[in-house]
Amino acid sequence: MELTETLRRAVNRECSCGGSGPDDPLCCPACRIWHAVxxxxxxxxxxxxxxxxxxxxxxxxxxxxPTDEDLRFVAEKLRMDDxxxxxxxxxxxxxxxxxxxxxxxxxxxIRACRDxxxxxIVMTWAIRSEKAIVEMCEWIQSVIDSxxxxxxxxxxxxxxxxxxxxxxxxxxxxNKLRDRRVGVTGLxxxxxxxxxxxxxxxxxxxxxxxxxxxxxxxxxxSPSTFPGPQQDQAxxxxxxxxxxxxxxxxxxxxxxxxxxxxxPKLQVSQTMRFAAIETASLGVSTVWYWSLKWARAKTAxxxxxxxxxxxxx
Length: 313
Fold this sequence. Notes:
By secondary structure, the chain is α/β, with parallel strands linked by helices. It has two domains: 1-41, no CATH class; 49-308, Glycosidases (TIM Barrel). It is built from twelve helices and ten strands. The protein has helices at residues 2-14, 29-37, 68-77, 103-115, 130-143, 156-160, 166-176, 195-200, 229-239, 268-281, 292-295, 300-308, and strands at 56-60, 82-86, 119-125, 149-153, 182-187, 203-207, 213-215, 218-220, 248-251, 286-290. The chain has an eight-stranded parallel beta sheet. A two-stranded antiparallel ribbon has the order 7-8. Helix 3 links the parallel strand 1 (56-60) and strand 2. Helix 1 runs antiparallel to helix 2.
């Protein structure tokens, strides 16, 4: 495994074709070496950006349950492997953890996801209070089948905490869900309050989003979100917690207008391409994109995102 990862990094560094398949006449010498040694390069569906050839792909459904039309779009148009279902909660804070959706609806959407050929992952907010943790874990154990992986989004309500420290909270969660694969996601820079949970998780999903945002009337990127450095820093900080697997969360946000003189003039597809290449070069083999609503947007940038994923319109 160590040799394969070393080879992967070297090939990605020297690749000049974007990860072409073994039968592609444009396949560069570096990729030909990879194919000859491993024979395991993932070939992207026709039309998909070559930078994704290294990766297993998934997409977040936002914090809403996907419709049947959404499932068809993700499975047939985007041709994703995984769909992360966001089950939001009614209550935050130390009062408790209250599910937003009825049990029947939750189970039906998980089943529909599998029927569409997608792997469902259930994501919910993680609230750092003993009462909320107990209620969340009891709901997961009673509602979600044991074959479905769980992803805990540890952000403000985990950082803030209420009556239980981060170490004890991490132990409580993972002990109550010890028969499951449980992952944790959070900001690209691993926070101290999340580290104990990340160190006990089956997998971690750093939010290494490179995206545009409107600043002062123009679109630009802050240096901290540049594609490349953003993914590299996220990988380093989250890997330091020692999880068994890193899955990278990348963004398909946009603003494909000219940037200021101080920032690179990248379009959304270029930003996504550089982020994907850097992620693969780190040895990460799975990427989950935030999020479905952006990939479905009826705008020029939305069409560029879909074209990046190989959607023909």
